[in-house]
Predict the structure of Secondary thiamine-phosphate synthase enzyme.
Amino acid sequence: MTGSWFQKQFTLPARSRGSYLITDDVVGALPELKNYKVGILHLFVQHTSCALSLNENWDSDVREGSSWIARREPEHALNDELDMSDALDRIAPEAGPKGQELYRHSAEGPDDMPAHIKSALIGASVTIPIKDGKLATGTWQGIWYLEFRASKHQRRVVATIQGQPKA
């Protein structure tokens, strides 16, 4: 059988800083998945201050944000930020411990350069196998969109499918 290629672009709704499970959004945007017996789906976000990732989709401490921190240290809870976002903020903070600037690139705001760092660390793409018209993720895996800017932005995603169509 001959392999085929398919590509389309879709837009994620405008969201502010946080981590969002988008597996259902991706499947909904790509009804063409059901036409493939076997293949790969490659997703690429066309921006430099957000990222895509495969990660835990079940545990509430990952999905529901700082619930772990809120339970143990209520004074440090961060408005439904996720564990992933919390960890990345420690790696690439917006300011030093005394509020000092950390980056030369600050013309677009204090969250812009840290957003670029986080995007470079996590990456702009994920690749997922397709089996019998469905994403072949692991039991606990989900596709995550990580937005690193405080202001809301729509994000364009290019989806490319390569595979063997169903007979």
Residues 28 and 111 are 31 Å apart (CA to CA). Confidence is low (pLDDT under 50) at residues 65-71, 75-81. The first strand starts at residue 4 and ends at 15.
